[in-house]
């Protein structure tokens, strides 16, 4: 699957996603572009449960994509829920070229990942803070 920018999604990117979604093998996956900027590849997978350790993996000056298995409890005795959240991390300080390639390649990855519930666009850490994501995820959950 290719994006408008001609960037393809590596098979391993889909395999890792399915391992997270179906196998609950990972808590999060960080994706990036390969050296030649032709393919979206897995840069890291983690079983680390702490949300802060996920945030620490997002670089201050470069773009990434990420998928996070976000667990939350909305109260009302409904117990924990889990949503798969897709992140496009594009900090203001990232190089323009990098921001352009990531922006134009996002759709190929996003379309390839079936089962994502929410999408977060982050340009600084306040937009990807736990509470910001929780608010967006619980809003998209809606009430039955």
TrEMBL record:
Pfam families: Cofilin_ADF (PF00241)
Transmembrane regions: none
Record's GO cellular component terms: actin cytoskeleton; cell periphery; cytoplasm; nuclear matrix
Listed SMART domains: ADF (SM00102)
Subcellular location: Cytoplasm, Cytoskeleton; Nucleus matrix
Coiled coil: none
Keywords linked to the UniProt accession: Actin-binding, Cytoplasm, Cytoskeleton, Nucleus
PROSITE patterns xref list: ADF_H
Every ADF-H domain range: 6-138
GO MF entry, a single one: actin binding
Biological processes annotated in GO: actin filament depolymerization
InterPro entries documented for this protein: ADF-H (IPR002108), ADF-H/Gelsolin-like_dom_sf (IPR029006), ADF/Cofilin (IPR017904)
PANTHER family, alphabetized: COFILIN-RELATED
Task performed by this protein: Controls reversibly actin polymerization and depolymerization in a pH-sensitive manner. It has the ability to bind G- and F-actin in a 1:1 ratio of cofilin to actin. Binding to F-actin is regulated by tropomyosin. It is the major component of intranuclear and cytoplasmic actin rods. Required for accumulation of actin at the cell division site via depolymerizing actin at the cell ends. In association with myosin II has a role in the assembly of the contractile ring via severing actin filaments. Involved in the maintenance of the contractile ring once formed.
UniProt record similarity statement: Belongs to the actin-binding proteins ADF family.
Protein name listed in UniProt: Cofilin
Species in which this protein is naturally found: Pichia sorbitophila (strain ATCC MYA-4447 / BCRC 22081 / CBS 7064 / NBRC 10061 / NRRL Y-12695)
């Amino acid at each position: 699957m290719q994006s408008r920018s001609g960037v393809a999604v590596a098979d391993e990117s889909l395999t890792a996603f399915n391992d997270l979604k179906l196998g609950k093998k990972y808590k999060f996956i960080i994706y990036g572009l390969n050296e030649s900027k032709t393919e979206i590849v897995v840069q890291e997978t983690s079983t680390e449960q702490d949300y802060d350790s996920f945030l620490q993996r997002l670089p201050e000056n470069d773009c990434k994509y990420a998928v996070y298995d976000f667990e939350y409890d909305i109260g009302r005795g409904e117990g924990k829920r889990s949503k798969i959240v897709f992140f496009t991390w594009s900090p203001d300080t990232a190089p323009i070229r990098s921001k352009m390639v990531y922006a134009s390649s996002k759709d190929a990855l996003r379309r390839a990942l079936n089962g994502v519930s929410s999408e977060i666009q982050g340009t600084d850490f306040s937009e990807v803070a736990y509470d910001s994501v929780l608010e967006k995820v619980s809003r998209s959950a809606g009430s039955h």
